[in-house]
């Protein structure tokens, strides 16, 4: 069990089961209790990282750049407890749902942009964000993190979910993870890694800070 959840994230009981929860409008049909909505770690790598007690450094209220927002499953929870939350997603279809999730969340800013081209949103995203959350599930995941390092404050954190099969379906996940870690270390110091296997097959969770 996680002892240090960010302010705004709580363990609450839904249908007799204790689960992570944030306060906000429902987004993906998740169970709700009053103002609280359950955060499903099977559908969210960041949710899994919190369930596994990884040291995310999240305290609540921070400025977040979220890469790979899709339709907003995870980033909606983030915007429930964080400060300004910039949500980058390059596929137009999920962005429609993301815009809907942002309707009731005044701190959530969807950006229809390619995370490999940070110069296209550098004029919108404020400098020195506290946290980058990345879940792009695409080839070149370390490169995306390195390209976006420019936005991160010196004492900020990268919370990265790496999907092995997105890099190369034919290789052993462990070999892929080793390569990603090595490439990442060009610009980041890795503080913690943990398999997210319990919730997401062949995914590695990484907490890092800029070097
Ligand atoms: C695994 S899904 C993200 C799920 C989401 N993070 C969540 O938990 O709710 C990966 C997403 O990354 C997006 N993506 C992949 N490459 C991207 C890129 N270069 N720029 C922006 N989004 C990208 C995909 O379109 C897809 O929606």
Describe this structure as you would to a colleague:
It is a single chain. With 211 residues, this protein is of the alpha/beta class. It has one domain: Rossmann fold (3-Layer(aba) Sandwich). The chain has helices spanning 45-51, 73-81, 92-103, 141-147, 164-167, 173-184; strands spanning 9-14, 17-23, 32-33, 36-38, 64-67, 85-89, 108-112, 129-134, 152-163, 188-195, 203-210. The strands form 2 sheets. It has a 7-stranded mixed β-sheet, sandwiched between helices. A 4-stranded antiparallel β-sheet has the order 1-2-4-3. Strand 5 (64-67), helix 2 and strand 6 form a beta-alpha-beta unit. The longest helix has 12 residues, at 92-103. It is globular and about 45 Å long. The protein starts with 8 loop residues before the first strand and ends with a strand. 45% of the residues are buried. The mean pLDDT is 97. The structure holds S-adenosylmethionine (SAM).
What are the key terms here?
211 residues, alpha/beta, Rossmann fold, seven-stranded mixed beta sheet, four-stranded antiparallel beta sheet, 24% helix, binds S-adenosylmethionine
Rg: 16 Å
Just name the CATH architecture: 3-Layer(aba) Sandwich
Number of structurally distinct domains: 1
Outline: globular
CATH superfamily: Vaccinia Virus protein VP39
The number of distinct helices, counting runs of at least 4 residues, comes to 6
Structural category is: alpha/beta
Major β-sheet strand ordering: 7-6-5-8-9-11-10
Please indicate the percent range of residues in DSSP E strands (runs of 2 or more): 25-35%
- Helical percentage: 10-25%
Organism: Natrinema longum
EC number: 2.1.1.-
Pfam families: Fibrillarin (PF01269)
Enzyme class: transferase
């Amino acid at each position: 069990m996680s002892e240090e959840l960010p302010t705004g994230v709580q363990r609450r009981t839904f249908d007799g089961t204790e689960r992570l929860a944030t306060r906000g409008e429902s987004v993906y049909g998740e169970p709700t209790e009053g103002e609280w909505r359950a955060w499903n770690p099977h559908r969210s790598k960041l949710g899994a990282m919190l369930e596994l007690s990884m040291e995310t450094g999240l305290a609540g209220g921070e400025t977040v750049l979220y890469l790979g927002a899709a339709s907003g499953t995870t980033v909606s929870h983030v915007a429930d407890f964080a400060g300004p939350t910039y949500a980058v997603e390059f596929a137009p279809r999920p962005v429609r749902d993301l815009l809907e999730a942002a309707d009731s969340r005044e701190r959530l800013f969807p950006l229809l942009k390619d995370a490999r081209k940070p110069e296209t949103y550098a004029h919108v995203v404020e400098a020195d964000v506290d946290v980058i959350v990345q879940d792009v599930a695409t080839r070149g995941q370390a490169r995306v993190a390195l390209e976006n390092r420019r936005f991160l404050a010196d004492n900020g954190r990268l919370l990265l979910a790496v999907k092995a099969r997105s890099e190369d379906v034919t290789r052993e996940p462990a070999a892929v993870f080793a390569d990603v870690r090595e490439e990442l270390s060009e610009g980041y110091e890795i503080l913690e890694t943990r398999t997210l296997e319990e919730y997401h097959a062949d995914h590695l969770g990484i907490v890092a800070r800029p070097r």
